[in-house]
Amino acid sequence: MSKKVRLGIIGLGQQGGAYAKFITDGLVPNMEIGAICDIDPAKKAIASDTYPDVPFYADYIAMLESGDVDAVVTCVPHFLHPEMGIETLKRNVHALVEKPAGVYTKQVKELNEFAASKPELSFAIMFNQRNNPLYQKLKEIVQNGEIGKIRRTNWIITTWWRPQGYYNSSEWRATWGGEGGGVLVNQAPHQLDLWQWICGVPKSVYAKVAFGFRRDIAVEDEVTAVVDYGDGATGVFVTATHDLTGTDRFEILGDQGKIVVENSKTATVTRLHKPERELSEGMDMDDVRKLFMGELNPEEYYTSEVIEFESAWGAQHSGVLENFAANILDGTPLLAPGSDGINGVRLANAIHLSAWTGKEVGLDFDENEFLAELNKRIADEGKFPQRA
Predict the structure, then answer these.
(1) CA nearest 325: which of 152, 170, 94?
(2) Side-chain half-sphere of 310: how many Cα atoms within 13 Å?
(3) Domain with CATH 3.30.360.10 in the chain
(4) 109 Cβ contact list (under 8 Å, min separation 6)
(5) pTM across the whole model
(6) Tens digit of pLDDT for each residue in 308-352?
(7) In this structure, how many other beta carbons lie within 10 angstroms of the beta carbon of residue 56?
(8) For the domain 131-309+344-381, what is the CATH code?
(9) How far is residue 273's CA from residue 271's CA, in Å, rounded to a whole number?
(10) pLDDT in tens, 253-289
(11) Which of 36, 101, 124, 170 lies 20 to 30 Å from 334 when distance is taken between CA atoms?
(12) What's the CATH superfamily of 5-128+314-338?
């Protein structure tokens, strides 16, 4: 193999087009475009004008078998990611799947199991937010125990405002059979991943979800989910697509500190000098009086630090592409292994299942029960085939 990975881009839409531009603009120095594939004939003309020396295919299997590509990225509807990932790996081509890894865990598990049988191939997922230096730093702080054991997490992420025209732009958008869900599978997968990447995978979830609440769609446009991590620790996740001004606030409370992230850009990290219970038990009535009078000196109890990074547009995505290519070329560890993709899909499935059944749902839920409930909704739409 050359020193540059030849990437096949499946789907020359918004994402595929952006990745092609990142590569041709030199943002991914260890990668070049090997081929482009799209079933839309109009995209062939666009590709030939923009990338005249790049082979174009209407059939992705033909592209995989052409010898033109070492790896592919799947910029296609969510249901197709597992299928295309498996077909890619079958032909000994490295696979980078877009988020989410799929729509339901049963299909993502098949992808992961097949990928595990091909350990010599690189298998990654486009979790570009993992390449955000702010979240990398916060994961390090939590893993190092700098804020102690997690007691509560909260993420309000409602910066996804979408007008009705967005949903009307395509027949498959915001449908159970075409997209597989709403805000949980389209806009919020990055946060579902980061939440678990940093704070751990919960044991169960109870959710109140509104379907077509403020938009004329079948799928969810507002979600409030409460998760249980065990040992009394809980978390709350709120997301929506009808909040015009939007909020992005992520809090992690530990027994020896706290992290507050605003707009995925600035984090305030508070580190207690001792675990909170020790501070509480060490206070006498005079300290309590000072507390009520506002006379306590905060420096006696904690320190605070503000962390902020500049992250240029495109750097996160191009960084994942570069890391994927480096893993292929020299074994550099992946920022986002493809097998991690199941975590966000599983949590989204559990949130849906809780809303549909009105019950708290374990993260070890019955996959067949979920698929049966999803298929009921696909059948009611009457536009798409049911899933196996």
Answers:
(1) 94
(2) 1
(3) 131-309+344-381
(4) 342, 367
(5) 0.95
(6) 988 765 689 999 999 999 999 999 999 999 999 999 999 999 999
(7) 17
(8) 3.30.360.10
(9) 7
(10) 999 999 999 999 999 999 999 999 999 999 999 999 9
(11) 36
(12) NAD(P)-binding Rossmann-like Domain (3.40.50.720)
